[in-house]
Write a structure and sequence with these properties.
single chain; 655 residues; alpha+beta; Rossmann fold; 9-stranded mixed β-sheet; 7-stranded mixed β-sheet; 7 helices; 34% strand
Length: 655
């Protein structure tokens, strides 16, 4: 081998070794780089949906309707019905939905001001490289479970998430470089965004969604219509609704357009009886400070089968005072009120202790001395024709029977409603006349007391004749003044009426022993309270409060159920005068909802003696609320099936 050949081979060897060394070094360097920024994962979870930051109704009690007090009344062609329009604004809350997905998990996190997204609701995440802006991946996920996305350790990412607040699938944007999506018109649109890096594997990244649309809600409330809406024709007066092209990266609207929609009240409001909802979604609520709807027709069928068209000339009504904020629900309510006619009330009670208003009667000699029960039913904000009357009715005409043996004469004049209490003793004519009066459609509230046993015993034959049951008996149930009786959980006008929901609550016995009726035909009555007191242990059978299912007859086993000798307010005793109303001069009796903080509004009273683990005065009794609801029931029955309005049909079932 010559020197030249050797030298050339040596150079090749050195170059090869250098190349191998460089390659190995480069590979080691890349290996080290991958080790420093190796693969890991991003973990996302949903923290909740952010409520609006300025909930103007946060200070109202939870049992009140959060409405802005902008209400107007429209006169309809029907003289029987009036239309009230109410505008309101409130935060969108998850529980407003009536889908089967609504669960107790949709609760408010008070510390974070978040509403939990329901488990199973879907959302989509888009992931981008924060440095280059390049699209990385997208994942469809569900609330209630974590989602893991592969990522490079220490790399920064931009994430964008959006959802419909339901279980609907969520589309992938067509253009992932500059992604946009059209805001839906039939559901919410939620959005979240942020920057993250996978520094610590497995550390959850919380998604906090916010609303990027608002709701326009139209309600038709027939709760106080006392009739069924057969058909309706209601439409928007203009194109108020809008949708938009939403930029996912910017979190803003690129553009908006209006859209039109028919009004169909297909959703049932789960919080308000007999109320149906039409719901619409808008991307730019600031463009809607008010809207009008045109009411073309509303056909109604009343309980007596009479049908009436309430609108013969189309009317436009306006809803306003909307704030224009995202995440708000702007509600316009069409509330229909039945206007009841004036009715005559016969009060049957002797003049002893007249100021206690045992039969809700005016004082026999001086109306200014009348007790709280009379003043409650005579209060026009409770029963009247004012725009804010709770029961819309004409004036009551009061008649008074205060002498034993004269009730049959008064019943012959056919009063619409009769209230009977202590002290009155029925004779044979009274009993016969009362049964006949009830069978013709007369409305009766009878309160039986045991303080004068002869008065009570004189009623037994009346019960036996009315129910055609000779074994019925009325007797002392062994409980006395301050006894507490738990009410049934029945959803009707008595226990869940216009003056309050008292289901499962209590009423209180006044002064003397409670009476119980035994051997009543169970199929003929609706039982509201049994004979055994909640604050007692002695066994007792029978009923202490019930109504007849096929006649307008209501009974209570205490003649002092309405007892309160004050004009209004609460008498300070745990065992007597359980009837209570607001007295605005006494702070202790103020109603918690300021809309009802006026004299003579019915409220509960702390009551009861110690017994069966219940402390004295620790239980609220709702005698006045029950009676207020009873009067609404009585007025409605007198209107549609009363002794002066056609009487009881053969197939009548109590309202």
């Amino acid at each position: 081998m010559n020197y030249t050949t050797f030298s050339r081979n040596l150079n090749i060897l050195v170059f090869s070794l250098a190349l191998i060394t460089l390659t190995l070094f480069s590979c080691k360097k890349e290996e080290n780089r991958l080790e420093d920024g190796g693969l890991t994962k991003l973990v996302f979870t949903v923290s909740g949906v952010k409520e609006s930051s300025n909930n103007i109704f946060a200070s109202l009690p939870t049992n009140t309707e959060a409405v802005i007090p902008t209400a107007q009344h429209q006169k309809l062609n029907s003289q029987k019905v009036s239309l009230q329009t109410i505008s309101s604004t409130e935060d969108i809350k998850a529980p407003l939905y009536n889908s089967s997905a609504t669960t107790s998990k949709q609760t408010k996190n008070k510390l974070a001001a978040l509403v939990t997204m329901t488990e199973g609701y879907e959302y989509r995440i888009l992931l981008y490289n924060a440095n280059t802006g390049a699209y990385e991946t997208t994942v469809l996920a569900t609330a209630g479970t974590t989602v893991e996305i592969p990522a490079v350790k220490n790399r920064e990412y931009k994430y964008y998430a959006y959802a419909y607040n339901n279980t609907d699938d969520i589309p992938v944007p067509t253009n992932l470089t500059d992604p946009t999506i059209e805001t839906p018109t039939d559901k919410d649109f939620l959005y979240a965004s942020g920057t993250c890096s996978a520094n610590e594997e497995g550390t959850p990244i919380p998604l906090i969604f916010s609303y990027k649309t608002s709701q326009i809600v139209l309600k038709i409330d027939s709760d106080r219509l006392f009739g069924e809406i057969i058909s309706y024709d209601i439409e928007f007066a203009d194109n108020y609704l809008n949708k938009g092209e939403f930029s996912i990266k910017n979190g803003t609207l690129n553009s908006t357009t209006t859209y039109s929609s028919s009004i169909s009240f297909n959703e049932v409001d789960t919080t308000q009886s007999n109320t149906r909802i039409a719901r619409f979604y808008v991307a730019d609520p600031s463009a809607i400070t008010s809207y009008k709807v045109k009411v073309n027709s509303i056909l109604v069928k009343f309980p007596n089968e009479v049908q009436e068209e309430l609108i013969t000339t189309p009317q436009e009504v306006e809803f306003d005072t909307f704030s224009g904020e995202l995440g708000k629900k702007f509600t316009g309510t069409l509330k229909l009120w039945y206007n009841f006619a004036s009715r005559t009330i016969l009060h049957v009670t002797r003049t002893g202790a007249d100021a206690y208003a045992y039969a809700a009667q005016p004082h026999i000699s001086n109306i200014s001395l009348s007790g709280a029960a009379f003043n409650m039913i005579n209060e026009k904000r409770n029963y009247g024709n004012l725009p804010n009357s709770i029961v819309r009715t004409g004036n009551f005409v009061h008649k008074r029977c205060s002498v034993n043996g004269q009730m049959s004469d008064y019943l012959a004049e056919k009063p619409d409603i009769t209230i009977i209490s202590v002290y009155y003793r029925m004779d044979e004519d009274d009993r016969t006349s009362l049964v006949d009066y009830i069978n013709q459609g007369g409305v009766v509230l009878l309160m039986t007391d045991g303080s004068v046993p002869l008065d009570r015993d004189a009623q037994i034959d009346f019960f036996r004749t009315l129910f055609n049951e000779p074994s019925i008996n009325v007797a002392n149930n062994s409980y006395s003044a301050g006894a507490l009786y738990k009410l049934s959980n029945i959803d009707d006008e008595i226990l869940n009426g216009p003056f309050g929901d008292v289901r499962g609550k209590h009423w209180g016995e006044d002064a003397s022993a409670t009476q119980a009726v035994s051997n009543l035909p169970e199929n003929d009555i609706t039982l509201y309270s049994e004979a055994k007191a909640a604050n007692g242990t002695a066994a007792a059978t029978g009923a202490t409060m019930f109504k007849h299912k096929r006649k307008h007859f209501f009974w209570i086993g205490d003649g002092g159920f309405l007892s309160n000798h004050l004009a209004n307010g609460i008498y300070n005793s745990n065992t007597i005068e359980p009837f209570a109303t607001v007295n605005t001069a006494i702070a202790a009796s103020r109603h918690p909802d300021p809309r009802y903080n006026y004299n003579n509004y019915p409220i509960p009273k702390p009551y009861g003696y110690t017994g069966n683990g219940i402390a004295a005065g620790s239980t609220l009794v709702y005698n006045s609320v029950i009676f207020a609801n009873i009067m609404s029931w009585a007025i409605a029955n007198a209107e549609f099936f009363g002794i002066n309005t056609g009487g009881l049909p053969a197939d009548y079932v109590d309202l």
